[in-house]
Amino acid sequence: MSVSTIFEQIEINLGLKSRLKFKTKMNDWAKELIDKIKEEFIFILINHIDSPQLRSRQQQEALSILVRSKRIRLIASVDHVNAALLWDQSLRDAFNWLYFPVSTLNCYGNEVFSSNGNILDHRVKGVSGRAHTIESLDVFWQATTTNMRKILEQLAIHAPMYSERFKWDSLNIPKFCRILKEEFATTSETVLRQQLIEFRDHSIIQFNKDEHILLTVDRNLLVNFLEQKMKQND
To answer: What is residue 175's DSSP assignment?
Structure first.
């Protein structure tokens, strides 16, 4: 749904007639709607205001102009953890948001693995399907614990990718558990198995039939990501 669709629905539902011949100037259209809405109180509910159709500056600015009216209230949800980056200070002031945490606690699978490796328009050439990106790894990183981050670092060092399985030494759970105990990242094989399920569910690793651990994320991408995190902590 685009802003023009929202504006059209307002006109249809309120029986308004526009004076604009060309409705390509969204800001002018928003101002005209404000002038015409004199008696009604309008509540607009937008699910996923950070959707691709609404992310452009033009779309967001038109919405921010519309909600300046004292008779119009906007209620919106966001899906992405960094959705607030859509708005600079001027747009935040214009929207004058009140934030309420009402997470559904549902998995962010669709957001993390977008069909073209694109999260909030961060595009990575050559990445498609369910391949990870720097952005998707960062979503996982931000949502996890210190021990899980240590495990991710050790996976980058010790776990072979599927294409490397005949070149690298295999990494089974007992061997990996010994490595992680030295890093104080796990306490037992039982605990480690539970921890690794999280990595498997996020398509970072997989297990072969002998329960050897294989990376499914590109190693170079993972190493670059971890190096960025190290620089941020320096």
So the answer is: H
Domain range annotation of the chain: 3-109, 134-231
Which is nearest to 61 in space by CA: 94, 37, 85? 94
197: region left, alpha or beta (phi > 0 left; psi from -120 to 50 alpha): alpha
Query: What are the two backbone dihedrals, phi and then psi, of residue 205, each rounded to the nearest 5 degrees?
Result: -135, 170
Pairing status of strand 72-76 against strand 205-207 = unpaired
Q: Mention the CATH class of domain 134-231.
A: mainly alpha
Collect all residues with Cβ–Cβ distance below 8 Å to 132 and sequence separation of at least 6: 113, 203, 204, 217, 218, 221, 222
Distances (CA, A) of 209 to 172, 206, 213, 214: 11, 10, 10, 11
The tokens describing 198, both together, are 């999280």
pTM (2 d.p.): 0.48
pLDDT score, position 127: 34
Query: Which tens digit of pLDDT belongs to each residue from 168-204?
Result: 778 999 999 999 999 999 999 988 988 898 898 888 9
